[in-house]
Amino acid sequence: MDKIQEEIIKEFSVFDDWLDKYDYLIELSDSLPMIAPEHRTDDFIIRGCQSRVWVDARFDDGKVWFAADSDAIITKGIIALLIRVMNGRTPEEIIKTELYFIDKIGLSENLSPTRANGLVAMIKQMRLYAIAFQTQTK
User: Fold this and answer.
1) Fewest C-beta atoms under 10 Å: which of 15, 30, 78, 138?
2) What are the tens digits of pLDDT across the range 8-40?
3) Rounded to an integer, what distance in angstroms lies between the CA atom of residue 129 and that of residue 106?
4) Is residue 49 flagged as an active site residue?
5) pLDDT at 25
6) CA distances (Å), 138 to each of 107, 112, 135, in order?
7) Taking 80 as the threshold, does the pLDDT of residue 101 lie above it?
8) Predicted local confidence at residue 1, as pLDDT
9) Dihedral of the CA atoms 88, 47, 23, 17 (nearest 10)?
């Protein structure tokens, strides 16, 4: 996970201002593993986000795989980053890893308070999925 976080930090370091970083987040939204249409329901929505964000996870061969969607393009880019770091990891890795890239790229300080709350809610939900899958394996 640290290698991927370092890649993200390096990618964002080429931009001098946050308008360029927001443009890059918008580009990243295209890389988002899309959630199945039947999972774009209230059962999969992240509470606490200003925009509507749906996240689903599946557990396969000891690893967690995420899919998501949002009605806001910047939020789609943010969740794409989170999935990039956490996808294909064990539940334990997802639960224990510090997501330091968020502060290193300046994301948390450049989000509106409601988007920052949404970011925390997305991370929390992804970790809750990991905890649920970890519990299944014990």
Assistant:
1) 138
2) 999 999 998 999 999 999 999 888 888 999 999
3) 26
4) yes
5) 93
6) 36, 40, 5
7) yes
8) 62
9) -100
Q: How many CB atoms lie within 10 A of CB 11?
A: 15
State the average pLDDT over residues 102-113.
89
Closest Cα to residue 89, out of 76, 99, 104?
Answer: 99
Partners of 34 in the β-ladder: 68
Structural contact between residues 57 and 65, judged by C-beta atoms closer than 8 angstroms: yes
- pTM score > 0.85 for this model? yes
Paired tokens of 85 = 């770091």
Look-up: residue for tokens 């992240």? 46
Cβ distance 90 to 57 under 8 Å?
no
Catalytic residue among 49, 55, 64, 107: 49
Tracing tokens 């929390």 back to the chain, one arrives at 124
Spatial contact of 92 and 99, defined as CB atoms under 8 Å apart: no
For residue 26, CA distances in Å to 4, 30, 36, 72, 76 come to: 19, 8, 21, 10, 7
Contact (Cβ atoms closer than 8 angstroms) between residue 29 and residue 77: yes
Q: Where are the alpha helices (DSSP H) in 29-112?
A: 73-86, 91-96, 101-104
